[in-house]
Amino acid sequence: MKRNTPKIFKRDMGAPALPFRIALGSLIIKEKLGTSDRETVEQIKENPYLQYFIGQTHYSNDVPFDASLLVKSP
Length: 74
Prior knowledge:
By secondary structure, the chain is mostly helical. It has a domain at 19-63. The protein is built from 4 helices and no strands. It has helices at 5-8, 20-33, 37-46, 48-53. Helix 2 (20-33) crosses helix 3.
């Protein structure tokens, strides 16, 4: 999939995408916990197990990404 991505998507259009593991992992966490976008990001920020689940290699107390990146477009 990564090899074909540059051909399909232009780098100068729109917001940069999250890496696949972070995007999918965050959506799984959001659905399992039944939380809002902001609550999901806060849960990931505070929980080292959730950070590991989305592919981070070490614990960080920083917000991993902006909650607005989880919003579905119309």
